[in-house]
């Protein structure tokens, strides 16, 4: 009887140990959870969207401003903005997991939350392929892998279709403009630069290490992009995109290759980035068709 009891206890202990969730986040830090998270606070809009896509939207109890997709995300309690968190509001939600954004959240805020004993997973998907991996990891963290793995598989399949369609196309030198004042673009490590490459473009500021470097008009003129693509802040084409028309010597202006992609489709590291990629690819294909006949 004693041997049976000891065996039972050993099996229970082994089961508990097996239930532990152990994952490395995007900084390489190891996170351990004793069980799937049931109360998650998301500290970035893309994290919130990916949690819903991974089937864990119902477990998100707090998030930040601009977490507006899907519709259900708008009803979640706010804990400030991603760069100006209300740490007391975060703690008051009693989360068993916080998912933060490395390049968006202040390191001091993340350190403070960790000091409270709250597990923190850091997200930083810099390549398109990373989105699928994020979905899978979020599914593991939340215990929703069945949904998350399906979403990741669909993402990879669609990505493969786009890559097949545009691989081998002639390169299009591209300037991606995030904002006008200050004039900002995307550097090598930004996911939008990866989208440009997927579409057969070459980011004219792709050698810059900064995520969102400030650039000058003179630098854009010197780069002479064949296409200029802007995002802005909303669903409408920003008026300042047409400000480039005064520079007739830029190839993109001369050929009317001034294009717009809605920011929510391309500036968030979520499954919807493939919608943005498809639009950007179509714009670069238009630019190819506008090349003079040889």
From TrEMBL:
Asked whether the UniProt record includes DNA-binding among its keywords, one would answer no
**Keyword Transport in annotation:** no
The domain of life for this entry's organism is Bacteria
Q: Which stretch is the leader sequence?
A: 1-18
Domain spans labelled Fe/B12 periplasmic-binding: 39-288
SUPFAM superfamilies listed in its UniProt record: Helical backbone' metal receptor (SSF53807)
Keyword annotations for this protein? Signal
The molecule here is called Iron complex transport system substrate-binding protein
């Amino acid at each position: 009887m004693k041997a049976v009891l000891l065996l039972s206890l050993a099996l229970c202990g082994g089961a508990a140990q097996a239930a532990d969730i152990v994952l490395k986040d995007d900084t390489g830090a190891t996170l351990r959870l004793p069980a799937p998270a049931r109360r998650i606070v998301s500290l970035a809009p893309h994290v919130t969207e990916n949690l819903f896509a991974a089937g864990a939207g119902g477990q998100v109890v707090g998030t930040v401003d601009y977490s507006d997709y899907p519709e259900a995300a708008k009803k979640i309690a706010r804990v400030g903005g991603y760069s100006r968190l209300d740490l007391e509001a975060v703690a008051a939600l009693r989360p068993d997991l916080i998912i933060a954004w490395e390049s968006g959240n202040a390191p001091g805020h993340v350190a403070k939350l960790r000091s409270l004993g709250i597990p923190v997973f850091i997200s930083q998907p810099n390549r398109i392929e990373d989105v699928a991996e994020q979905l899978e990891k979020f599914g593991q963290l939340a215990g929703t892998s069945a949904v998350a793995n399906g979403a990741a598989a669909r993402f990879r399949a669609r990505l493969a279709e786009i890559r097949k369609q545009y691989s081998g196309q002639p390169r299009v030198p591209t300037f991606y403009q995030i904002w006008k004042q200050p004039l900002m673009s995307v550097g090598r490590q930004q996911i939008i630069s990866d989208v440009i490459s997927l579409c057969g473009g070459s980011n004219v500021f792709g050698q810059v290490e900064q995520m969102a470097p400030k650039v000058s008009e003179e630098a854009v003129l010197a780069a002479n992009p064949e296409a200029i693509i802007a995002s802005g802040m909303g669903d409408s084409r920003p008026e300042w995109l047409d400000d480039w028309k005064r520079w007739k010597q830029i190839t993109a202006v001369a050929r009317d290759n001034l294009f717009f992609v809605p920011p929510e489709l391309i500036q968030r590291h979520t499954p919807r980035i493939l919608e943005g990629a498809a639009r950007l690819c179509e714009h670069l294909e238009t630019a190819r068709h506008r090349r003079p006949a040889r």
